[in-house]
Amino acid sequence: MVWQVAPWAILIFGFYLKDEANRSPVLVSRKLKGFLMNPDRRQAPRKALRTHGLLASRGSVAVEVQTIDVSVGGMCVGAPSQIVVGQTYTVTFDVMLSERKRRVAAVAEVAYSVGNNHDGFKTGLRFIQIDHASVEVIEEYVSS
To answer: Which of 51, 66, 97, 108 is most buried per CB count within 10 Å?
Structure first.
């Protein structure tokens, strides 16, 4: 990819980042650099959550996962095996609120799955369908 930019634009609007893949400088705006340099680009607040959950898809056996954190937009789980990115699952887990278990269920798309066979796979799930009651449970939990 080659970008041609007037030298004055570099001084006014941005700066260069070194592209490690091809060793050529890439012009990036300050706002975009902040986004790229920040690995936590979530839109909603999240909170650590350590409990067991289930990932299920049609025609396959449910996979038990360990929840890591949750927000109204999605969650991170630890899975025993790599989960296919882009695959859609139903995820269910319980949240303790006011000493009472509350069930959360959502349809989620796998955003990433990284790790190895020794430690498991850290898997990001983006909620694509979630009922109002589940959203309220997550909002209450995250704000507590």
So the answer is: 108
More confident residue, 110 or 44: 110
Give dist(CA 52, CA 34) in Å, integer: 34
Query: Does the residue 1 lie in any domain?
Result: no
The domain of 70 spans 47-143
pLDDT of amino acid 42: 53
Mind listing the pLDDT tens digit for each residue in 32-71? 444 444 445 556 788 999 999 999 998 888 999 999 999 9
CATH number of residue 52's parent domain: 2.40.10.220
